[in-house]
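Take a record:
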Amino acid sequence: MKLNYSIRTILVVILLSVSFSFVAKGQNENNFEISKNLEIFISMYNELNKNYVDEVNPGELMINGMESMLETLDPYTVYIPETDIEDYRMITTGQYGGIGSLIHKNGDYVVISEPYEGYPAHKSGLKAGDRVLSINGEDMIKKPSDEVSKFLKGQPGTTITIVVERNGEDAPMSFDLDRENITIDDIPFHGMLNENIAYIKLTGFTQQAGNKVKDAYVELQKDNDVQGLILDLRNNGGGLLGEAVNITNIFVDKAQLVVSTKGRLKEKNQDHYTRFNGIDTKVPLVVLVNAHSASASEIVAGAIQDMDRGVVLGQRSFGKGLVQNVIPLSYNSQMKITVAKYYIPSGRCIQAIDYSMKDEDGYFTKIPDSLVNEFTTKNGRPVFDGGGIEPDVNLEPRRFSQILSSLFRKYLIFDYATKYTAEHDEISSPEEFYVDEATYQDFMAFLSDKDYDYTSRGEKKLNELKKAATDDGSFEDISEEYEVLQNAMRHSKEEDLITYKEEISELLKLEIVSRYYFQEGKIRATLSNDPEINRAIELLEDPATYGSILDGSYTEDKAQL
């Protein structure tokens, strides 16, 4: 399709408008470069469309050009086309129009992962493990999950017909659902971990997140003797800055600086202070973070740490300290553009120095000391920049076996949970349910004809050694030793199922529990066996150690935790 006259006219008008605005502001060298390169770009775009050997799609070509331009900047400056506005609305408000279910791709099918309790997918009878065949008569087999997701989402009140294939059923099953306004709860669970320690799990910072945390805490206070609180921000990717300030405000007094935003345009720099009297400014507080706690999560954890208001426990956070504004563009599209950086009360910036300085699990690698600057908390404790929030109490992240990773990635634990659910109408409570010996033996039998092999880390390193030795011609000299090492490292899937039975059973338990008790049940099932939560409880029940962390006298040797 050729560029028609109207499109060329629009491009010329855009160029003239931009050029006129530059003249009005006073032409300078930078404006000339922009004007010149816009003209070159339009010429190239037009010539490609007229002369390229194959037919081109002008719209797709332009979007690819825009996205490639933005890729040279930070990862968070992005173009949002009109078709993705619904996804953006979900991120900021926690709401979208749809059926209320997670989905994933497995082979040729998109599969229902987890219906949200009380929403259309759940109410209609759709179950985790159902394979989507068609939506409103259109074939969904072999379609990518993001495309299927767009079919599932839509205006609340509209009807959608989904045909699925279910294990144990001879024929496809059809479901008619009315889409609803789906609200993702930022707090999937809050409760008491024992008589005195309260717990709030926060998964996002959408609109009203601050009020939800406040209401949850007030409710726990009302019915219990709360002597300590764990605020769990692990795997919380952040959200709205204002809600981070509001959540911090629950635990600190009015008029406290929480975060400053500073960018190239000085007039847009802002200091964000707490606006209300705190709900509880004295309760001992532990904030849990990990490598996937980002942005607003890091503002809360960092502000609490800088004010010496509570203890941060876990692993170094992600290091996303950039502020984005959403700017409307033509034709209902938008651009999310980075305009500033976050600075927490001590003056340090959360932003990672280098986006690439993370290992394969997403955790920070060692940052050179020469790039790190020291700051101090309210009590004079040293804290550092360089990327993310370094916890006051640093725990090693849990690393799981490769056989468990393989079973998880290939959806074999998910598929067995589907089988188990079809055979069991109910289970005991999330706290009481466990995978017994008979269930684990049944799981092993289920795996007998499945492919879940993998290459261990040692085997990967050995393969790299062989390649390097082969490349430089020395492999023959070490071939015998190589064979000995290869035999020693060769793993057995069946033996690994026994060796790693405990951790495999744990994940199997969580997947099964989620089928009966949804997200809340999954969280409840993890609480008693979570090393970071257990460490936080011990810390809150040890006032001397808790206090020593905040006054700066704490050392790992002194802490009997």
In short: The radius of gyration is 27 Å. The first strand starts at residue 78 and ends at 80. The CA atoms of residues 307 and 378 lie 5 Å apart. The mean pLDDT is 89.
